[in-house]
Amino acid sequence: MAETRRMSPMALSMRKRSLLVWGIVLIVVWAAITIPVTLVYSNDLLERVAMVIALQIFIGLLALLGVIFLIVGISGEIRSKSFNRRDWALADALHESLGELWHEPSDLAYRIAEGDATISNARLVEIERHFDSQTEGAINGTMSHQLRMFGTSFSTSYGSARATGPRTASMSSSSAGVFSGSIRGLSQVNLNVSTTTRNNLMGDALFAVFEAAGPAGQRDTYRVISMSQPGVVGWLRELIAFAANQVGGPRTHAGGTVLSWSDNLTNRFAPGDISYVTDRLKALQSRPAEERETVTVFGSASGRNAVIATALSIGGTQQLSMMPARFPELFGRALAIGVANGEQRLAGRPAVQQSITDGAA
């Protein structure tokens, strides 16, 4: 799939390059201090050993931290490379299995499986279409503020002096003051809200009631429901995104590979007949009851006499696709084969030779 074996963001996050560098630096510093001091201290081997031991009291922590950082850094490199190798093996295998699924005919996702509901020779009673809508709004506002301040003050003072003897005098004074004030404010906010609702005229969902033989007799009623085409596309994309997260997410090569197939698989298996079916049934409803062709509905039961339509045929003509109900099964099988082949490659064994459509006919 890819020519280069670059590491994914997930694999890169497992590397501890900073700890690896710090471990090397600390060990080099420890050695740069220990070796010269030991050699200069003495020529006697025992004295040198004693000096090395004595130095560890002061710088032994550097060596200990250096070894720990070095071990963590090396183990991170080993983990990241091992993860990257497995990640690429899964990515390549998933790319092949999803490519095989993409080449399968789209009708495979609309085939009727055992246990699905079938309504034969049904007569249309009622039909409604519901368009997907989107509402956009904006809030515009202005704010005004008025501030008023008022204050008053009042003060008085009194003083007196008198002579108490030759060359002596006394003086006294008193004063009083009062201040009062107030601040008043008024804020006004005027908001204008405007909204616009737009209907997606190509995104109509189907709701219809048919009359056919059933548990209640020859004229039992059935409710038939179908999602809109944009709704089905959104469902397919969410399913693929969920599966991508299960194999590692977008930060891995395996998860990114699954996400890269989202557009191709969605365009391949998304229904293209929902709006056309609605138009045909609306035209059928406009005719007199005796002139309406019978309808055959295929789908999944959802409650009493309620069916989520997978395909529909009007007047015995070609089936029209409504909902790829079997896509999750096909997609899950493709993922399982891809993961199994990735594990086989890592173990050096041949890939699983199994078709995605085995048991799907």
List keywords for this structure.
elongated, 361 residues, alpha+beta, 3 domains, five-stranded mixed β-barrel, 6 strands
Write up what this structure looks like.
Keywords: Membrane, Transmembrane, Transmembrane helix. The chain crosses the membrane at residues 20-41, 53-76. By secondary structure, this protein is α+β, with helices and mostly antiparallel strands. It folds into 3 domains: 9-84; 107-133 and 202-332, no CATH class; 137-195, no CATH class. The chain contains 8 helices and 6 strands. The chain has helices at residues 9-14, 17-41, 45-102, 229-246, 253-260, 262-269, 274-285, 327-346, and strands at residues 117-165, 168-214, 217-226, 295-301, 306-314, 320-321. A 5-stranded mixed β-barrel has the order 1-2-3-5-4. The model has no long low-confidence stretch (mean pLDDT 80).
> Terminal Cα separation, in Å?
30 Å
Poorly predicted ranges (pLDDT <50, ≥5 residues)?
Answer: none
Give helix % range.
40-55%
- Please indicate the percent range of residues in DSSP E strands (runs of 2 or more): 25-35%
Give the beta-strand count. 6
Mean pLDDT: 80
Work out the count of structural domains.
3
SSE class? alpha+beta
Total helices: the number is: 8
- Strand order, largest beta sheet: 1-2-3-5-4
Order of helices and strands: HHHEEEHHHHEEEH
Q: How would you name the oligomeric state of the polypeptide chains in this document?
A: single chain
* Radius of gyration, whole Å: 41 Å
Tell the overall outline: elongated
Please give the largest β-sheet.
5 strands, mixed, barrel
